[in-house]
Amino acid sequence: MTTPTTSAPVAQASPAVHPTAGRRRAARARRSASGAPTGRGFLRKLTPYLFLLAAVGLLLLLTYLPAANMIWYSFHEWRGIGPMDDFVGADNYVQVFTNPQIFGVFFVSIYYFAGAFVQMAIALYFAALLSTRTWFSNFFRGVLFFPYLINGVAIGFVFLYLFQPGGTLDTVLGWFGVADTPLWLGDPDIANYSLAATSVWRYTGLNFVLFLGAIQSIPGELYEAAEIDGASKWQQFWALTFPGIRRIIGLSFILAISGSLSVFEIPFIMTGGANGTSTFVIQTLQTAFTFRQVGLASAMAVVLLVIVLVVTWVQRKVFPDEKVDLT
User: Fold this and answer.
1) With 0-12 CB in 10 A as exposed, 13-18 as middle and 19+ as buried, what is 33?
2) Partners of 76 in the beta sheet?
3) Which of 142, 164, 129, 175 is nearest to 271 (CA)?
4) CB neighbours of 301 closer than 8 A, spacing ≥ 6?
5) Cα dist. 23→28, 60, 287 in Å?
6) Which stretches of the chain are assigned E, i.e. beta strand?
7) What is d(CA 249, CA 243) in angstroms, rounded to the nearest whole number?
8) C-alpha span between 125 and 139 (Å, rounded)
9) Ramachandran region, residue 230 (left: φ > 0; alpha: ψ -120 to 50; beta: rest)
10) What is the pTM of this model?
11) What's the first-to-final CA gap in the chain, in angstroms?
12) Shortest CA distance to 287 belongs to which of 107, 101, 108?
């Protein structure tokens, strides 16, 4: 008779733990418990500042440092070549405001400022029209925005041929019996209107896209409710559309002011500043690179910068940003 044998339970061997690894894990646990960052956590926190360092460094190098140099040059008499000449203090600024040939060109900006309101009105009209379901709306949107994508130099040459004597515009007007056409760019009384019209054609697309995006952000349920209440399209525009895009209109107004004061490409390409079409920027460049008065030109640039900042600040105070609630 055999006696059954009972097998004792076999204990599983646990893996050996190296004492050094155990001490490392314990130290890491203590650092985590105490709140001390590990190497990887410190690098993760430092990464955003590294990206900011590159952007801020380029901003300081390419924007603020040249601006500081420009302010420093404005207090000196310097020809742009060789060592810095004598320190003249505020004499350059006094000359900017007292010389009518310098400060008088600011009045040319009035033509472009008036043209900016024309382009805003045209852009707002087409944005309100094409924001609804319209045949070939995408095609017309592209047609309106396309001029803004064209290089300003190319636009200047195109309209230079358009406005030249016997050019495209005179030919088209001749089809309608207009024989005695003016000198669109040669007559000082008409040249600035022609240049301002060219600027309107180019920048209407930018305002159109801004207005269109703002209008499409307004909830469509509000327009449906207004239609149910019997509101006409004109009433919907003044009650819903205009208040909803008020901030974008304010932004376009700021861009219109700064743009009208710093016009350069179109008049420089088409007329070179002749026939009373010289803007303040063209006058500044001619002062610096043609007449070799870099100190005076720097003062002119500083004055232009201050005027744009002051006008923008006044506009923000007169038309502050208000939260628009259409509900």
Assistant:
1) exposed
2) 87
3) 164
4) 70, 74, 284
5) 9, 48, 74
6) none
7) 10
8) 16
9) left
10) 0.76
11) 98
12) 101
Tokens at 124, concatenated: 């707002």
244 close to 324: Cβ distance less than 8 angstroms: yes
Q: Output the tens digit of pLDDT for each of the chain's 327 residues.
A: 444 444 444 444 444 545 555 566 655 655 555 554 556 777 888 888 888 998 999 999 999 999 999 999 999 888 878 777 788 888 999 999 988 888 888 889 899 999 999 999 999 999 988 988 778 888 999 999 999 999 889 999 999 989 998 888 999 998 998 888 889 999 999 999 999 999 999 999 999 999 999 998 888 888 888 888 888 888 888 888 888 888 888 888 888 888 888 899 999 999 988 888 999 999 999 999 988 889 999 999 999 989 888 888 887 777 676 554 555
Q: Which residues pair with 87 in a beta bridge?
A: 76
∠ Cα 80 282 159 (to 5°): 140
**Residue whose entry in the numeric block shows the structure tokens 């030109």:** 297
Q: Which residue's entry shows tokens 């005076």?
A: 296
Query: What is the rounded distance in angstroms from the CA atom of residue 272 to the CA atom of residue 282?
Result: 8
Q: Name the DSSP class of 104.
A: G
Q: How many CB atoms lie within 10 A of CB 27?
A: 10
Measure the CA–CA gap between 15 and 276, rounded to whole angstroms. 92
Q: For residues 85 and 253, is the Cβ–Cβ distance under 8 A?
A: no
Encoding tokens for residue 223? Answer: 């327009």
